[in-house]
Amino acid sequence: MVAHRRPRFSRHDPPPLQLTHDDVAILRYVAEHRFLRSTHVVQLIGRPYDKVIRRLAVLYHNGFLDRPHAQLDLLTCGGSAPLIYAFGNRAFAEQAGTDWTDKNRAVKRPYIQHALMIADLMVALEVALRRYPSIRLVRAAEIGSHSWTLSATVPGEHAPLVVTPDKVFALDFADTGRRNYFVVEAARATMPIARADLDVSSFKKKLLAYHHGHEAQRHVTLWGIPGFRVLTITTSKERMASMLDVVDAITGGKGSNVFLFAAADQLSAADPLAFAWASGKRQAVRLVP
To answer: Which of 27, 119, 219, 233 is most buried when burial is the number of CB atoms within 10 A of its CB?
Structure first.
């Protein structure tokens, strides 16, 4: 007897569902990251692969999760790429009135890919921390409820430069009582690294805002934190090298350990805590002392 296979991108004949503890955890993870691959969920839940994949399908066909159609052209011809999941309309009572299916349908592929680059780091970080019982991940909401926009005055510019991180988190070290703060930038080569005109978007413009904001202690004034580092994930070692050149240029050749860089392909198979990030001083730096 051939097993009944439901369509992947249209809901059909939803199987019976009684939400479990794992189901609620899955929904909260997807809500936190906006988009997750099925493989992300397997890592986070820590259950057997086939069991999690089946559960994701049940949650999808019952309307608790969604599968954005923009991923269709990301799938290989054989359909072997992990499915991407988003929030569904039935997910949480507090989200009633929001049509997540429409919102997910309107999202374009570059936005999803950008979100997944951030999720790659944050999921790997959360999973890695299970091996470090003395270190705790602190999410942005626990740090503060304010806006995470940073503004800074740059010499020679009339208007302040403004930057909003893609992600904010901290690490608490129980053995020392120390808390280290990080902001994340996912640079997918969708904007130039540098432009002469700061009125238009470039990654240099972001680096300038972070550098001068840090120098002026704007993070203390605006965010109420004593310091931070910028973790930048980009698409290749070549782009990373160009970004390091920009750090040299904006710091007068001194470099800066505020900035840490990694190429996505190198970071993907690594523990991000033990990984040797390239600092703005071209030194190897790890997030764990």
So the answer is: 233
Digits of tens for pLDDT over the chain (289 positions)?
344 567 778 787 788 899 999 999 999 999 999 999 999 999 999 999 999 999 999 999 999 999 998 888 766 545 578 999 998 888 765 555 677 888 888 888 899 999 999 999 999 999 999 999 999 999 999 998 778 999 999 887 778 999 999 999 999 999 999 999 999 999 998 888 988 778 788 999 999 999 999 999 999 999 999 999 999 999 999 999 999 999 999 999 999 999 999 999 999 888 999 999 999 999 999 998 7
138, 225 Cβ separation under 8 angstroms: no
Which residues, in sequence order, are CB contacts of 103 under 8 Å at separation 6+? none
Would you tell me how many other CB atoms lie within 10 Å of the CB of residue 228? 20
Signed CA dihedral, 126, 204, 141, 59: sign only: negative
